[in-house]
Write a structure and sequence with these properties.
This protein has about 100 residues and is α+β, with helices and mostly antiparallel strands. Helices cover about 20% and strands about 45% of the residues.
Length: about 100
Amino acid sequence: MFTASCAVRILRPYERGVVFRLGRLHGDSRGPGPTLIVPGMDRLTRVDLKATVVSAAARNVVTRDRVPVGVDAVIWFRVVDPVKRSSIARGLVRRKWSG
């Protein structure tokens, strides 16, 4: 009974699951609802499809007419392909824009 409960994962409607078997991508992304995995061999990575906000670090720049200006930005993004997000772009946005 314990093994069966470890093999079922429930994904919310705004989540997708990507299964890695022994560290390699196994199949395509899994949709919302119950998902079966093999305990000990598979690792399910949950990917949130909701819009995410990342604030970029403030920068001081000088314009062409030599006026100092402070620039601050907020970046909104949404995941379209959960497989690429979980295998290629892990932490890319936070590394690039955090300062």
